[in-house]
Write a structure and sequence with these properties.
Length: 232
């Protein structure tokens, strides 16, 4: 998160850190006791290894009361996701066991009504992604509020030039923005997860490249079917 601020500790108890060998790779969030939603692109450099999921954390390194690292039983990238574009950039992770819910670990509801969030709506996004252009990484969860911009503005030829589909949404990226390592985290508007951070052009903090999110509502049926089909 560029030019955000430290989140109030444990006030975003749905936040997950997807880790490999103890290193934060991507964000994610708890959508059910045994399920985390993130971005499919996060598996690009994992060489087939499964993530570990850190829940209940504010600091990535310090001991905290309800901080716990969960093993992942299975990962389900959306079948339409691919390395060449941002389409269907969603990843479902089934935890090895149900997460223990408490004040620091809680499920975040996601939007099921497929209707665009109005432009200028101020939403918030959080993550342990890089906080400056030299790629400095925070120890503590960062957050930032960003206004939604319309798909027409986001698709302007000087911005994302027609690549933003109906299954995507954008927020203004002037100065304050998402960045490397924030992928997979939720865009929360009015207490409901409306989108999942996708890297898109990978540019951070440049107003000409608004931040892009995969809208969740269009994928509610896919999410429900994967959760229902997997055992347990
Ligand atoms: N703002 C959109 C957005 C959301 C999520 C991730 C991203 N960026 C990135 N995702 N993956 C990346 N691998 C390498 N570099 C990256 N961006 C980068 C890093 C340092 C300086 C800078 O100006 C940009 C990214 C960008």
């Amino acid at each position: 998160i560029l030019r955000g601020s430290e989140a109030r500790p444990h006030l975003k108890p749905y936040m997950a850190s997807l880790q490999l060998d103890g290193q934060h790779v991507c964000g994610g969030f708890l959508i059910a006791e045994q399920w985390v939603l993130s971005a499919a692109h996060c598996t690009e450099e994992t060489d087939g290894k499964l993530f570990q999921v850190l829940l209940g954390a504010h600091s990535l390194t310090e001991p905290e009361p309800h901080k716990r690292l969960y093993q992942v039983r299975a990962q389900f990238p959306h079948p339409g996701s691919n390395i060449h574009n941002n389409k269907d950039d969603l990843l479902l992770l089934q935890l090895e066991e149900k997460a223990e819910l408490n004040t620091d670990v809680r499920v975040l509801p996601f939007q099921r009504e497929d209707r665009d969030v109005a432009a200028d709506t101020v939403c918030e996004v959080a993550g342990w992604g890089t906080i400056d252009h030299s790629g400095r990484r925070p120890d503590k969860l960062q957050q930032v509020q960003r206004p939604v911009i319309s798909r027409d503005v986001c698709n302007h030829r000087t911005r994302h030039d027609g690549t933003i589909t109906q299954n995507m949404m954008c927020t203004d990226s002037r100065r304050k923005d998402t960045c490397k390592g924030d992928s997979g985290g939720p865009l929360v508007c009015g207490g409901v997860a409306e989108g999942v951070v996708t890297a898109g052009s990978r540019v951070c903090g440049n107003y000409k490249k608004p931040a892009i999110y995969t809208r969740i509502a269009p994928y509610a049926a896919w999410i429900d079917s994967v959760m229902a089909s997997a055992d347990g």
